[in-house]
Amino acid sequence: MRLRGITNDFQRFGLVVDTMAPIAKTPWAFLAGCLALLTFSVSPTLAQEVAGNSHGSPEPHIITLRADPSCPSNCDPDSDYPGYDVELAKVIFGAAGYEVDYRLLSWSRTLVEVRNNTIDGFVAGIKDDAPDFIFPEEPGGVLVNTFAARKGSNWKWTGPDSLKGKVFGYIPDYQYFPELKSYIEAHVNDPKLVQGVAMMNATELNLRKLAVGRIDLTCDDMSVLQYEINRLKLNDQLEVITPGVGAPVPNYIAFGPNNPRAHKLARLWDDGIRRLRKSGELKQILDRYGIKDWK
């Protein structure tokens, strides 16, 4: 028993305990003091021990979400437009009594931290990013792999051969469509063919490199590229080119496989999205970002 901590708490509430006296000598007084303490206060240290766990995870009423910036799904957390998935998460989990703690983190690091259960989940990921994670049924958008090139390049995707003579800028751990992913893996050690950017603002950096001619092409989600090109005011220099490969891929807010409340949070998300879609609030949030419902 933390007798020193209990004694301090007694004294804080005007209760005097003689720690030098045998407890058995005044059993009823000691018991009364304990009851009074429990009625009015819990030691801050003890409260932290009860609220937390052995590896220092956040308190249960806080949901921690991380991702690299992928606007308009998830953007600057301090902005009036933090991203439509972030706004949805705050509405959905807030209605269940949770507070959402969303911050930016590199994508590679996000996957590690969610798997280690030091944070709860990621935003705007797909199932191939982490197949062992706990995914809700309802996605938080769709991913459409799209290229960006300098205007006037007249470039089109016709397969991996169309990348010959081009320097391609990519994001490590990003899930590109199979043909492109295989090309990157085959040339990952040749910076004259592929150049990776693993920083948190990787999409922005790739677009800036593209605009000044350091790379010739990059690839990302269509809505992300359009948003970033507009934000960076590069519309006169860059254009997006859809390869027409495969169907749109759902992306999600997902939770770690070792998170004891992962399934509960996934169910809350599903119920919340369906409720907001029915009420029209989903459309109102998406309209703020110029996004149409994906379903």
What is the helix/strand order?
A: HHHEHEHEEEEHEHEHEEEHH
Quote the beta fraction. 15-25%
- Domains counted in the coordinates: how many? 3
- Put simply, the count of helices is 10
| Estimated radius of gyration | 26 Å
**What shape does the CA trace take?**
globular
CATH structural fold name of the largest domain: D-Maltodextrin-Binding Protein, domain 2
Instruction: Please state the average pLDDT score.
Output: 83
CATH secondary-structure class of the largest domain? Alpha Beta
Q: Which homologous superfamily in CATH is the superfamily of the largest domain?
A: Periplasmic binding protein-like II
Outline the low-pLDDT stretches. Answer: 1-59
| Class by SSE composition | alpha/beta
N-to-C span: 56 Å
Oligomeric category? single chain
Helix content: 25-40%
Q: What is the topology, as strand order, of the major beta sheet?
A: 7-6-8-5-9
CATH architectural group of the largest domain: 3-Layer(aba) Sandwich
Walk me through this protein's architecture.
The model is unreliable at 1-59 (pLDDT under 50). It contains 10 helices and 11 strands. The chain has a 5-stranded mixed β-sheet, covered by helices on one side. It has 295 residues and is of the alpha/beta class. Helix 6 (178-186) links the parallel strand 6 and strand 7 (194-196). The termini are far apart. The radius of gyration is 26 Å and the shape is globular. Helix 4 (84-95) crosses helix 9.
